[in-house]
Write a structure and sequence with these properties.
The complex is a heterotrimer.
Chain A (H helix, E strand, L loop, with lengths): L1 H12 L7 H17 L3 H22 L3 H8 L2 H7 L4 H30 L6 H27 L5 H29 L4 H29 L2
Chain B lengths: L8 H43 L1
Chain C lengths: L11 H32 L14 H28 L2 H33 L7 H22 L3 H33 L15 H45 L1
Helix pairs in contact in C: 1-6, 2-3, 2-5, 2-6, 3-4, 3-6, 4-5
The chains are: A mainly alpha, B mainly alpha, C mainly alpha.
């Protein structure tokens, strides 16, 4: 399983792996927001936690089809399916690889971009925490969506349509932690719920993703 | 006979209008597709009969 | 009645034969109850002292919202039946129900917004209930889109039933998240249309009739659409056989 992980990570970082694209997209979205809503610092300050969460989420979304697409196209996915690894393990490793190569950079970039949006000082820490806690859920849920649409031509849009509604609870609680943290309120409830969602999805969703992948590989 | 809707006439009437229109659309679309598929299936069944 | 006998109707041919007899009755009952409920509610009930004539929207909004949820629940059950017992009629019934559920959700949203405008002063408010229905609408869209995107019938049935299962969990999660999200910001300001609180008898009875009408309308439409799906599936199988023999 470790071999699979390192392989995926190496593939992602190599040229053509699209490594920096998620980050670039995140940056562009954040730069575009003030053009859309106006440059007033006070306004940006208020919406910064939500915008940063949304930007990270969307950047995550755009890289999801990459999880299985390349392996599907060259037949490696069929090979993996016959390997002695359980499919649940394979999809979990894939999700982990996605998190390490796509989501984690976004989490680390978020505070930097927070400066552009006038994020209030106490918000930086909570933004980091909420994203660090929430993005694994985004990767795991995204892996489920990617498994559903693997092999479909034009699967990208369908993937977004399927995954975005599933992202709603994570987004709500994650952004709530970031927002309450920025305004100095108590974050325990949303934080606990966010952690619950992440743990629940990591524990249970791989079973669904594995079942879906096996169906698609028939 | 029409009740006094007063200032809410717009909201109430458009609610009924939109709802009944949507119901009409789904009923009509369902019936139309049903008829189409039924005829197409009957054609294929007829063609099959002429083979056997 | 032997419950095992119910599985007999899972046979496509038997299903069509049975619904041939049952459908006209269901359809007429649906029409009767719907017309009775709506006419009664619209013409023969008084105004609410708080909401004025807009209370008449309740006869559309509540039944539609109820069916929007029930349609999804039915899809969940039939998806489970497909996963466990592989009865094709079950999978096709789920596929048939989705567009109807989606339309019910739309009606609930539209009437909710139209009711909210005079009450709250805006065309749309992110009231927890309305927002949950908006999210439910997106779930319906995704489910229908997945059916349409996959060519192989059995693969489509398998994938969509898993999506329905996973989606149901997240839909429930979203409901709580949305409640938290709105109430968390505006403590106490309840914008939701409190229909369950002491709905007076004079409104309740026509509402019951309207709910029954909507429920039977849903059943009738699902029966029609499932028959269509059964026939379409048979048609595809015959066409494939024709092409192989040619």
């Amino acid at each position: 399983m470790i071999a699979l992980l390192t392989r995926d990570m190496r593939l992602a970082v190599r040229a053509g792996g699209g490594f920096g694209l998620g980050l670039a997209f995140f940056l562009i979205v954040v730069v575009l927001v003030p053009f859309g809503v106006g440059p007033q610092g006070a306004l940006l300050s208020k919406i910064a936690p939500g915008i940063l969460w949304l930007g990270a989420l969307l950047a995550c979304l755009l890289s999801l089809d990459r999880i299985f697409a390349l392996d599907w196209e060259d037949g490696s996915l069929d090979l993996l399916a016959t390997a002695p690894l359980p499919m649940e393990g394979i999809v979990s490793v894939k999700a982990l690889a996605h998190w390490l190569t796509t989501s984690l950079p976004l989490v680390l970039a978020a505070p930097v971009l927070g400066v552009l949006l006038n994020l209030p000082a106490p918000g930086f820490g909570w933004l980091l925490v909420s994203l660090a806690l929430g993005t694994p859920a985004l990767s795991v849920i995204g892996t489920f969506g990617a498994a559903l649409t693997v092999g479909l031509k034009r699967g990208g849009l369908l993937l977004s349509l399927l995954v975005l509604p599933l992202y709603v609870p994570t987004l709500i609680f994650g952004a709530e932690v970031a927002r309450r943290g920025a305004e100095g309120y108590d974050v325990t409830t949303p934080l606990a719920l966010l952690a619950g969602i992440t743990c629940g999805t990591i524990a249970l969703l791989p079973f669904a993703s594995a079942a879906v992948l096996k169906i698609n590989l028939r | 006979m029409i009740p006094e809707l007063g200032k809410y006439a717009g909201a109430v009437l458009s609610s009924y209008g939109v709802s009944l229109a949507l119901i009409a659309v789904i009923v009509w679309a369902s019936l139309r597709r049903s008829a189409r598929v039924k005829t197409a299936l009957e054609e294929i069944e007829k063609r099959r009969k002429s083979y056997d | 009645m032997n419950l095992n006998a119910l599985w007999e109707y899972a046979n496509p041919k038997k299903f069509i034969a049975t619904t041939d007899r049952v459908l006209p009755f269901v359809a007429w009952m649906a029409a009767l109850l719907l017309v009775t409920g709506l006419v009664w509610g619209f013409f023969f009930t008084p105004d609410d002292y708080k909401q004025g004539a807009t209370v008449k929207i309740i006869y559309l909004h509540v039944p539609a919202a109820l069916m929007a949820i029930n349609a999804w629940l039915m899809m969940l059950v039939t998806s489970l039946v497909w996963i466990v017992r592989r009865h094709h009629v079950s999978a096709l019934a789920a596929r048939a129900a989705a567009p109807v559920g989606m339309v019910m959700t739309l009606i609930a949203l539209a009437t909710g917004a139209l009711w909210g405008q005079p009450m709250w002063g805006t065309w749309w408010a992110w009231d927890p209930r309305l927002t949950s229905f908006l999210v439910l609408f997106l779930f319906y869209l995704g489910y229908i889109a997945l059916w349409e995107a996959i060519e192989n019938d059995d693969t489509a049935a398998d994938l969509t039933s898993i999506l329905c299962l996973v989606g149901s969990v997240f839909a429930l999660l979203s409901r709580y998240a949305v409640n938290f999200w709105n109430q968390g910001l505006h403590q106490g300001a309840s914008l939701s249309l409190d229909k369950e609180e002491n709905v007076a008898d004079v409104f309740w009875y026509p509402l019951l009739v309207a709910m029954a009408g909507f429920a039977l309308l849903f059943v009738a439409l699902v029966l029609v659409r499932t028959r269509t799906e059964i026939r379409a599936r048979r048609m595809r199988a015959l066409e494939a056989r024709e092409r192989m023999q040619a």
